[in-house]
Amino acid sequence: MKHINEILKEHPFFKGFTADEIDFISSCAKNKVFHQNEIIAHENQSADEFYLIRQGKVAICSLIPNQGNIIIQTIGEGEILGWSWIFPPYQWMFEVIASESTRTISLNGKCLREKLEKTPDLGYKLMKRFAQLMIARLNATRLQLLDIYGKKG
């Protein structure tokens, strides 16, 4: 069984991070499993964690008036879930549901925020990675909304 440090080192999101940086981050990490159809996060709920998906899939959804809960994006193994923990007001922007049984590494955002205040260089490095994640998620949302509202009929 791999130690959390090894899993983080191998994850594409943390490519280029030093062993000390990985140790620093992994001190706020633990394994977490979600069952199929389990709600991982509610829109506007406090966002105190983010997840590295090790196995499985999750649906990132948004409630669209007169449309219901619409899947914006489905992500899986090797991807990161959650960026709201790093930006005030620390609330989830989307509803997140496990599409199937999903194994993750859960990182405690509050723990990391407190630690990163003392290590701004690492905080900036993480901020840049999460900014890329946000751009990808927002582009997926925009495309999904174009697909929904671009339909005539």
Q: Could you please describe the fold and organization of this structure?
A:
With 153 residues, the chain is an alpha+beta fold. The protein has four helices and eight strands, in the order H-H-E-E-E-E-E-E-E-E-H-H. The strands form two sheets. The protein has a four-stranded antiparallel beta sheet with strand order 1-8-3-6. Strand 4 (57-64) and strand 5 (68-76) form a beta hairpin. Helix 1 (4-10) packs across helix 2. The longest helix is centred in the C-terminal third of the chain and has 30 residues, at 120-149. The radius of gyration is 16 Å and the shape is globular. The relative contact order is 0.20. The model has no long low-confidence stretch (mean pLDDT 88).
Keywords:
four-stranded antiparallel beta sheet; globular; 8 strands; 4 helices; single chain; alpha+beta
Number of strands: 8
- SSE-based structural type: alpha+beta
Q: For the largest beta sheet, what order do the strands appear in spatially? A: 1-8-3-6
| Amount of beta strand | 25-35%
Q: What is the C-alpha radius of gyration, as a whole number of Å?
A: 16 Å
Structural shape: globular
Helix content: 25-40%
Give the helix tally: 4
Summarize the biggest pleated sheet. 4 strands, antiparallel
